[in-house]
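Have a close read of this protein, sequence plus structure tokens, and explain what the tokens say about the fold. Thanks in advance:
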Amino acid sequence: MDEINRNDSGADLGRLAQAAAEAMTDGMVERLSDTAANSLEVVDRLNDVDTREAVHALLDRVTEMHRSGAMDTVFETIALLHGARSAMTDSMVERMFIFVEHMMNNLANEEIAAMAHNARRSMEEAVQETQQAMQFLLAFACKMQSRSADSHGMVDHEDV
């Protein structure tokens, strides 16, 4: 009996495949073969070690983003940017670029460059001085702790 059911199932599948093949147009066959070729090309690219590692890394990061809730943040940010882009008119974009151009023209001059150079040099010098001050305070604190431990509240004979 099982043999008969298997033969019937096989015959049914054969008839189904025959019906599908007869129903397909040349365009459908062409698209199906293109899809199969593209699929095999993708599978073949996964044989490359670098590609496989990249896909695994991507999947790991997506999983990590999903667990931490960052995926929601990414999609919310994308929706926000899309909404902002959809709401912007050509006039708004033009005014934004005029503003950026105006700022660049105001900031891109010799005086601003000199001020930025002077600010960087001043910062470097201040850091060196700060480090020296911190070293002084650290040395002072160590000496104070040392004297306090040595004297246990007694007056040092050198100071009298």
User: Anything to note?
Assistant: The helical segments are 2-23, 26-45, 49-68, 70-87, 90-107, 110-151. The radius of gyration is 38 Å. The mean pLDDT is 84. Residues 65 and 73 are 9 Å apart (CA to CA).
